[in-house]
Design brief:
About 40% of the residues lie in helices and about 20% in strands. By secondary structure, it is of the alpha/beta class. Helix 2 packs across helix 3 and helix 5 packs across helix 10.
Amino acid sequence: MNTFQLTCFLTVAETLSFAKAADRLHVTQPAVTHQIRTLEEELNAQLFRRTTRSVEITPEGLLFLNDAKNVLNIITLAKKRFEEPAAEERRFFSIGCHSPNEMRLLPDILRQMAAVCAALHPLFYVAPFQHLYQLLDEGAVDVVIAFREKGQKKGAPIYKELAQVPVVGVLPAGHPLAGKTVLDRDDLRAQKLILIEPQRCPDSLNAIQHELTTGRTVSELFLCSSAEACTALARAGFGIAIQPDQPPLRDPALAYIPILGLEALSYGVYYKSAAGKPLRKLFLQACKNSFPMGADR
């Protein structure tokens, strides 16, 4: 695997055209085709579906998209360290999370860190938790912010809870149920439910989704690839989205109503060790300040 292969892959993914990618990269179309084919052979996965009329990225290609971007970013930063000696002064700190939406929880934390460490240079990685866990284990990321996963294995990273997050029903502010203080199972049975696909859902939320969908037909459910997609459908009036409620991420056009009988989810930070890692200690302290519910847990 090399940088030109990854650049070809990302350019084709952006343009959905081998010809346009070749023009943008100033190479021939057969050269782009060759790079994609050898990359697919190395990964043992089909990244694009190609016909005479169209190019479509596959689910495997979508999963590889973040990996390709991250690898290129790391290589680019590594090169710049030698091209720009001043770059050595930067203090890199990498944060992993499930979705871009979660980055909205971080500005205050990063502001506190930057006030102490002026050379702070944050990096972000967005990927499914299983992949983030591997990056954390390999030391490629410093911390992962996520909902607590079940079945922690021996030697697993440290988990520090930051907040207990209730699971709510999300619906338009003008919905007939928007004025209720709590939703019960009868309320939910009368509405279509909007859920995150099980393979893209934290274990703890997946268990709740399974509980709420028992006895429901497929036609009564919408399955989405992300929390952001669920929110979009809820706002459009397609049904009630089942989501953890984190106030900084709320949409003012929506109502967030607790669901009777559901336990709150644990949200926190995973890390390997803070010993000898001043930026990790600084991050954890900033988290305590920004998530008072999780302080000293």
